[in-house]
Design goal:
Layout lengths: L1 H23 L24 H8 L3 H8 L7 H10 L4 H10 L17 H9 L5 E4 L5 E4 L1 H6 L13 H7 L1 H6 L3 H18 L4 H13 L1 H8 L8 E8 L3 E11 L7 E6 L5 H12 L11
Antiparallel strand pairs: 1-2, 1-5, 3-4, 4-5
């Protein structure tokens, strides 16, 4: 037990260091009231540790130990650091997760199955694409319209049925998203948030390792330590069957199990995209399956 706990703490501490260093190197000293440095000997891009500490009103040694993962900090100190580094809500939550201040529930590593309640909801959505995503952004269930819009998920081996993996490895996804790079970066940022919740998840580690070897873009974006939560947004798509689509996506969480989320895509009422989405739905084959027993 102590060995496992120590390994997990070390993993979190290392990630805290990478994350905080990445964020402070993005800020220029003059943005926060320090004089612009013209000293060629300044080897640290962005803010120095001492500058972050001064603005957060803590000692430089204390901040250094936090960044090195050798000292835990109360929420008030984490909030101060988040303000100095101009972290958004998702990044602040991520920092708290890594520091063990936001997630105390035990980890669950049993294979996930789509909740029956979400399955029933998904079946009623006959005109719009819908997916159930689980931990690590695994695709747990989908409807026929989602299969017609993205890929036939039933044709993807179950162990590889992960949305991030599909975005990076399935050729159709690279041409479907008109701004594939920004969409893929968002997926990586969302996966980073998953890593904060369970840094010792061996399946997530294997996924990150595999994609890092397969794709240089994934490797670079993962190293940037950007984080994001799944919420909502708009995507521009170019579908081979119906043409260009502008779709809004929304995330609906199931209160009984926050690790499962229903993701839906809709079009503006009366728009060309809505008409084309209806055309796609009308031609969607139920034979594509939905990934679970009826």
């Amino acid at each position: 037990m102590s060995s496992s706990g120590g390994s997990e703490d070390a993993g979190r501490g290392s990630e805290i260091g990478h994350f905080l260093k990445a964020r402070r190197t993005e800020l220029r000293p003059e943005q926060l009231g320090f004089p612009a440095s013209s000293d060629p000997r300044r080897r640290t891009p962005g803010l120095r540790r001492e500058e972050v500490a001064a603005l957060a009103r803590i000692s430089a040694d204390y901040y250094a130990r936090i960044e090195q993962g050798r000292r835990t900090a109360p929420l008030s100190t984490l909030d101060a650091i988040a303000r100095v580094l101009r972290l958004d809500d998702a990044s602040r939550d991520y920092l708290c997760e890594l520091s063990g201040k936001a997630a105390s529930q035990p980890r669950q590593r049993r294979a996930q199955k789509a909740a029956p309640h979400l399955v029933r909801v998904l079946h009623t959505l006959t005109d719009i694409p819908a997916l159930v995503l689980g931990r690590r952004m695994d695709v747990l269930a989908w409807n026929s319209v989602a299969a017609a819009l993205f890929v036939d998920f039933a044709s993807v081996p179950e162990r590889q049925r992960n949305y991030v993996r599909i975005v990076f490895t399935h050729p159709a996804m690279r041409t479907l998203y008109r701004a594939w790079a920004s969409s893929a970066q968002l997926c990586v940022a969302q996966l980073h948030m998953e890593a904060a919740r369970d840094p010792q998840d061996p399946q997530l580690a294997a996924l990150v390792g595999e994609l890092s070897l397969l794709d240089a873009d994934f490797r670079r974006w993962w190293s940037a330590h950007r984080v994001a939560v799944r919420s909502h947004g708009t995507k521009e798509l170019d579908h081979p069957a119906v043409g260009e689509l502008t779709l809004d996506w929304d995330t609906l969480a199931w209160a009984e199990d926050p690790d499962q989320q229903l993701i839906i895509w809709t079009a503006e009422p009366g728009s060309v995209s809505e008409e084309r989405l209806r055309t796609l739905a009308a031609g969607a084959s139920p034979a594509t399956g939905d990934g679970f027993e009826p």
